[in-house]
TrEMBL record:
The keyword Ion transport is assigned to this record: yes
Role this protein plays: Subunit of the V1 complex of vacuolar(H+)-ATPase (V-ATPase), a multisubunit enzyme composed of a peripheral complex (V1) that hydrolyzes ATP and a membrane integral complex (V0) that translocates protons. V-ATPase is responsible for acidifying and maintaining the pH of intracellular compartments. Subunit C is necessary for the assembly of the catalytic sector of the enzyme and is likely to have a specific function in its catalytic activity. Reversibly leaves the enzyme after glucose depletion, causing the catalytic subcomplex V1 to detach from the V0 section. Subunit of the V1 complex of vacuolar(H+)-ATPase (V-ATPase), a multisubunit enzyme composed of a peripheral complex (V1) that hydrolyzes ATP and a membrane integral complex (V0) that translocates protons. V-ATPase is responsible for acidifying and maintaining the pH of intracellular compartments and in some cell types, is targeted to the plasma membrane, where it is responsible for acidifying the extracellular environment. Subunit C is necessary for the assembly of the catalytic sector of the enzyme and is likely to have a specific function in its catalytic activity.
Cellular component, GO, one term: vacuolar proton-transporting V-type ATPase, V1 domain
Domain of life: Eukaryota
Keyword annotations of the record: Hydrogen ion transport, Ion transport, Transport
Family: Belongs to the V-ATPase C subunit family.
GO MF assignments: proton-transporting ATPase activity, rotational mechanism
Subunit (UniProt): V-ATPase is a heteromultimeric enzyme composed of a peripheral catalytic V1 complex (components A to H) attached to an integral membrane V0 proton pore complex.
Full protein name: V-type proton ATPase subunit C
Signal peptide extent: none
Length: 200
């Protein structure tokens, strides 16, 4: 019975801390998307939707992340990587210390080949689809996960403290019982004190 209670406390605390670790990992991933470099960062606040060819039957815009030191090579060779790349369609969207982000327009039927050739050149194609209000939605999601992380951390801390105190109390009772049993086994049952007879 005591062992079952200890096991239940342990399982509850572990489950809550696992939940907290999952939320913390999600929050770290969202924060990394907000603060990373162009290869990992969310493109929603960076890309102007006017740069993208949308709702076209034949054309498609690709976002390519190029290391800054390979920028000139990209500009010199992107038109010849695959057939049907729209000439002079490269537009620099953003730049940071390590990478430069370009938007390039190609025909849809050669898009896969163009993206494969970019990967071979160690340029990173980024998947991006413009969504109205996407920036605000990302910020709301980040705020929601941050609030949930604080809430679950408080619950986990409270459960950990409660579990620790209950465990300490149970172990104290077990140790007291053990000392009593060992005392009885070693020295025998305590003698009963004779009650003084009432004088008549």
């Amino acid at each position: 019975m005591v062992n079952d209670k200890l096991q239940n406390i342990d399982n509850d605390v572990k489950a809550k801390f696992n939940q907290y670790n999952g939320i913390k990992t999600t929050l770290a991933a969202l924060q990394r998307k907000q603060t990373g470099n162009l290869a990992t960062k969310s493109l929603t606040p960076i890309v102007n939707p006017n740069l993208l060819v949308q709702d076209s039957e034949y054309l498609e815009t690709h976002l390519i992340v190029v290391p800054t030191n390979a920028r000139k090579d990209f500009l010199r060779s992107y038109e010849t990587l695959a057939p049907m790349v729209v000439p002079r369609s490269s537009v620099q969207v953003a730049q940071d210390d390590e990478f430069t982000l370009f938007a390039v327009t190609t025909f849809k039927k050669t898009s896969a080949e163009f993206l494969q050739k970019c990967r071979e050149q160690k340029w990173t194609p980024r998947q991006y689809k413009y969504v109205e209000g996407g920036k605000e939605e990302e910020q709301r999601e980040l705020d929601r996960i941050a609030r949930e992380e604080k809430k679950v951390w408080g619950e986990a801390l409270r459960l950990g403290r409660t579990g620790w105190s209950e465990t300490a109390m149970i172990l104290t009772h077990v140790m007291t019982l053990r000392v009593f049993v060992e005392t009885v086994l070693r020295y025998g049952l305590p003698l009963e004190r004779p009650r003084s007879k009432q004088r008549k």
